[in-house]
């Protein structure tokens, strides 16, 4: 992490699900994955910066303990990038929901949002079937009252983190525990 950051910290991320904290880890594919309640979470390097895309508004760059930038680039699953993406690179906004969780001042309940208003979600969009819909009637059609199949999608829980708009999947709620401040 370089000198563009206004402040740096280390933090652990947990998915808050049914009142339990599930650790967020980086798996063998470098993907951010929801693990169990007893697993040890990844300790992220978090850099706060005035991001040019937000006209100087605050954004946060997350890096894994191995120094790799967290991104959703190259697919929708959040992962640790194999290549350096530059700084300011992929950044997230932290939406603060509650602080002082369990009486700890360094533990916060948050949601994470991209700079283009997508949220980090622990759900995936899954094809569940097809629905027949009428095709518009035309004078010169071979089948004037025909139907066509359109896909039906549903949001289902997933063990991978993805970027989604809230109309596709719900935003995940996380516990962000700051471990140290650099």
**β-strand amount:** over 45%
Q: Class by helix and strand content?
A: mainly beta
As a whole number of angstroms, the C-alpha radius of gyration is 20 Å
Total number of beta strands: 12
CATH architecture: Trefoil
Largest sheet: 8 strands, antiparallel
The helix/strand series, from N terminus to C terminus, equals EEEEEEEEEEEE
Q: What's the CATH class label?
A: Mainly Beta
Question: How does the overall form come out from the CA principal axes?
Answer: elongated
Could you describe the 3D structure shown?
The protein is mostly beta strands. The protein has a single domain (7-124, 157-181), classed as Trefoil (Acidic Fibroblast Growth Factor, subunit A) (Trefoil). The protein is 0% helix and 54% strand. It has no helices and 12 strands. The protein has strands at 7-17, 20-26, 32-34, 43-51, 57-63, 70-71, 79-80, 92-98, 107-114, 119-134, 147-164, 174-181. The strands form 3 sheets. Strands 1, 2, 3, 4, 5, 8, 9 and 12 form an 8-stranded antiparallel β-sheet that branches. Strands 6-7 form a two-stranded antiparallel ribbon. The protein has a two-stranded antiparallel sheet with strand order 10-11. Strand 8 (92-98) and strand 9 form a beta hairpin. The radius of gyration is 20 Å and the shape is elongated.
